[in-house]
Structure formats: C-alpha cells, structure tokens
C-alpha cells in the first residue's frame, strides 16, 4: 500500500507472480535474461548456430529430463575441440552461450540447442585471433557422435539401453551426414546481436501475439505459427486442455539451468577482463534501470504507477499486505534471520532487505 503525503490518497500495488508462463512476468524475465547475456558479450562478430537431433531420439529426453544435460555437454565438447585443433599450443578458447529450447513452433516437444558463438577467441598469450570459417561438416558428425555416446552412458535401464543401441545404429545409418546444424549469417553489428538475443535466445514458449482467440463455448484455443519448412502460415485450433498440456511439458525442472556460459564467457580470469565488451560496464546501471518495475510500467503503459492520481505527486510506501493481512517489516526481518548469512549477527533493525 502506497500513500500520498499531500492529499492522503491510498493505492494498492499487487505483487508479481514471477512465473515464466505469465504474459507479463515471463516477458520481463526474458528481457532481463537477454540483457544479462548482452552484458557478457565481447565486442566482436558472433554467429548463431542451432544444434538439432533426429525425431526418433526426442522421446528419450522427455522421459528422462536428466538427458538434457547431454545436449549441453555434446555441443560444448564439439565447439571446444574445433577451436582447440586450430592452435593446440595456445589453448585457443572462444566465448559461447548455449540456450536450451524444448519447443517447436507448434509447441511440440523438440529439444535443441541455440548457440551464440564468437568468431574468434583468445589464447594463453592474451591476444585475440579472428576465425570466420566453421567446418559444419565436422560439427555435424562430431555432435552426433558425442551426443549418442553420452546418452548411451547415461541410460542405465537394461531394456531402454538395448532399445537405444538399436536406434543409435539406425541414426548412423539414416543420418550419414550427422545431425543437422543450422548456422545463421554472421552478426557483425552489435544492435543485430542484441535483437537476436531477445528474439531467439530469450523468447518464451509462445507469445500472446500468436494466440488468436479463445472460444468459451467449445473450450478451444486458436493460435498460429509459420511452418519451419516453408514459412507457410498455419492456424491451429485445439482444446484448451490440450493447449495447456503442450505448454506445461516445457516447464524446466527446479534449478535446471536453461542458459549456460562456456569458454571466455564462462571463466573468470584477469586477462579476459581486458577484452572489449559489447556494452561498456559503465552503461549497465543505466540500461538496467529501464527494466525496473516503475520504469517498465511507464515505458509499456505510459503512466507512472507511483504518481498520485489526484495531485500528481509521488506516493510513498506505507504498509505491506500478504494474504490480505498486514505484515510489518520487523516481522519480515525476524523471519529472514534464519536465512541470513552465518557471519551476519547485526540487530534486526539494522538489517537490509537484501540481507
């Protein structure tokens, strides 16, 4: 509850649900995630690659979600080995970010890895070396071999393992060129990189713009998408419960990391701090301020939520309510005492909210 010190007007501001599937909170989460990635990027050209798998293997990742880690490990090993072969003595290392997507455009189960990789890397000497040629023939075969080997080692059930060995042999027979890896054009401009991060790496399962209508009588939902093969617009109407089933299968497990940083972006060395970043560190606070709650409401809906509707003065925080009951800040501090860091032994009144 906020109050105006000038005219006494009171106003309640609701909490956010913080759910990734909420149209509002999920969009904000995606924006913050894309912004955090852009802060890590080096000021160089990047390439966006997509590591895919065959349809016959998708059900293994749905039945055992721990196998999704194999996608990260396989893609990372391929990129690391490819750059290592260029200069073994200098330990040539690029910077790359791997993002897991488990959905396709029709919301079906389709796990694949999006990779944003720098076209170059830094060695032990600290000098940057530019690389503008990637051997996708090698990457396809290497990714197929690495992923199938990792999956075979992770599957422990004897019956499933025997079935997987048969499908593994068929995979080598049917996909003689390896798993399909799609590489988008080089991202030379930093604004283009930022757009790609927001569009491909930070997007939710489905946007509100793709949901056309909801029929209350028939309990059906109509949505559209562009078919990946030929970009033809497809409109699909399905029961609401089926729509929900398609969505919730993409909810990740608790504490599962959908975004992982590798190479230069994943390590913390003093020499790497000398590399020029895509966004200068001095601009971070300014850009982060646009995603704060008050600024976000103002930019999205055109009004300041803390402005008094009567006298237009800035309202101040008065009280906090949870489950329709007033909660004092002292009570919050008392409850947080059990979660404080072991070194923190300060009186309750001196605690900060972050503590």
Task: Compile the SSE list and pairings.
Elements: E1 2-3, E2 10-11, H1 23-40, E3 46-51, H2 58-63, H3 68-86, E4 93-103, E5 109-122, E6 128-130, H4 136-154, H5 158-174, E7 181-183, H6 190-201, E8 211-215, E9 220-226, E10 233-239, H7 240-248, E11 259-263, H8 284-289, H9 293-301, E12 316-317, E13 320-322, E14 325-327, H10 329-336
Antiparallel strand pairs: 1-2, 1-12, 3-5, 3-7, 4-5, 4-11, 5-6, 8-9, 9-10, 13-14
Helix pairs in contact: 1-6, 3-4
Characteristic key phrases:
single chain; 355 residues; alpha+beta; 10 helices; 35% helix; globular; disordered C terminus
The profile of the biggest β sheet is: 6 strands, antiparallel
**Secondary structure: number of strands:** 14
Radius of gyration over alpha carbons? Answer: 25 Å
H and E string:
EEHEHHEEEHHEHEEEHEHHEEEH
Summed over residues and divided by their number, the pLDDT gives a mean of 83
The poorly predicted ranges are: 348-355
How would you sum up the global shape?
globular
Q: What distance lies between the first and last C-alpha atoms, to the nearest angstrom?
A: 23 Å
| Proportion in β-strands | 15-25%
Q: Which structural category fits the helices and strands?
A: alpha+beta
The count of helical stretches stands at: 10
Helix content: 25-40%
Domain Transposase IS801/IS1294: 95-270
InterPro entries: Transposase_32, Zn_Tnp
Organism: Butyrivibrio proteoclasticus
Protein name: Transposase zinc-binding domain-containing protein
């Amino acid at each position: 509850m906020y109050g105006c010190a000038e005219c006494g007007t009171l106003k309640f501001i609701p909490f956010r649900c913080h759910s990734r599937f909420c149209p509002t909170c999920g969009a904000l989460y995606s924006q913050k995630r894309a912004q955090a990635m852009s802060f890590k990027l080096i000021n160089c050209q990047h390439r966006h690659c997509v590591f895919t798998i065959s349809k016959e293997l998708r059900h293994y990742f749905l039945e055992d979600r721990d196998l999704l880690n194999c996608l990260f490990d396989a893609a990372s090993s391929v990129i690391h080995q490819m750059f290592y072969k260029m200069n073994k003595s200098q330990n040539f290392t690029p910077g790359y970010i791997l993002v897991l997507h488990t959905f396709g455009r029709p919301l079906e189960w389709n796990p694949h890895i999006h990779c944003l990789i720098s076209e170059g890397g830094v060695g032990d000497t600290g000098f940057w070396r530019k690389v503008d040629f990637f051997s996708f023939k090698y990457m396809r075969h290497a990714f197929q071999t690495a992923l199938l080997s990792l999956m075979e080692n992770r599957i422990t059930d004897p019956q499933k393992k025997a079935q997987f060995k048969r499908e593994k042999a068929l995979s080598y027979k049917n996909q003689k060129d390896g798993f399909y890896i799609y590489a988008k054009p080089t991202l030379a401009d930093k604004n283009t990189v930022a757009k790609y991060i927001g569009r491909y790496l930070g997007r939710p399962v489905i946007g509100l713009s793709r949901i056309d209508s909801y029929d209350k009588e028939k309990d059906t939902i109509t949505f559209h998408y562009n078919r990946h093969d030929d970009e033809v617009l497809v409109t699909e109407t399905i029961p609401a419960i089926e729509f929900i089933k398609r969505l919730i299968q993409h909810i990740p497990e608790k504490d599962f990391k959908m975004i992982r940083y590798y190479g230069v972006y994943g390590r913390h060395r003093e020499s790497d701090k000398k590399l020029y970043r895509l966004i200068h560190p001095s601009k971070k606070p300014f850009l982060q301020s646009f995603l704060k709650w008050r600024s976000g409401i103002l930019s999205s809906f055109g009004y300041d939520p803390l402005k008094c509707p009567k006298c237009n003065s800035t309202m101040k925080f008065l009280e906090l309510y949870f489950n329709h009951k007033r909660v004092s800040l002292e009570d919050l501090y008392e409850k947080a005492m059990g979660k404080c860091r072991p070194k923190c032994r300060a009186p309750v009144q001196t605690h900060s909210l972050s503590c």
